[in-house]
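sanity check this:
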Amino acid sequence: MPTSSRSFSTSLILCSSSFLLGVLFVNWTYDHKTLWTPNPTDEVFALAKQHYTQLATEPVIIQHVFHTVIGLGLLGFILKLYKPSESNQLFDGGSLVLFMAGLIVYLTNVRRGFFSVLDGNWGDVDEHTGINVIAASQVIIAFSLLGVLGLQVGQYYAEVQDDREQAEFELEQRELREPRQEADVQTETETKKDK
């Protein structure tokens, strides 16, 4: 049986995506100043570097919790796509692509950026550009997670609408059958009277 948008697996996806958006929101104070403030000062970049250093040196248990939440989101997708319906293939397939895109950006840009903050090795770019890459990557992740939430809400709406239309169709069919059944009963009684 296909998994509905009102299932436990959907809850895993929604909770995971919402939690990850909350984590990204915490960084927004620093990302906004480095990305969208005209001519950010060295002090703004120093504050952002200090913030990212603190995130990179957080206790390992916090990183494990963060990665477990990501894993729970992926588990939700696996459960929903085990025996997919057409709705699951479209909405959940698109959601999985967005979730994986966000995960790949996290692993390739944000995680590596945290290591660069710690060791000071920014590769081919300077420190300011490296911090902006981390910030821009988090914006990309936020948009991909918002897309996941949007597709999940869209799937819920589509299923509710489909259920409503199915109920209306069944009601119309029942109303069409009832007059026929009454007419058949009247015909049978008239036939019995004639005999």
Residues 179 and 185 are 10 Å apart (CA to CA). The chain has five helices and no strands. The chain has a mean pLDDT of 88. The helical segments are 8-35, 42-56, 60-80, 86-119, 127-194.
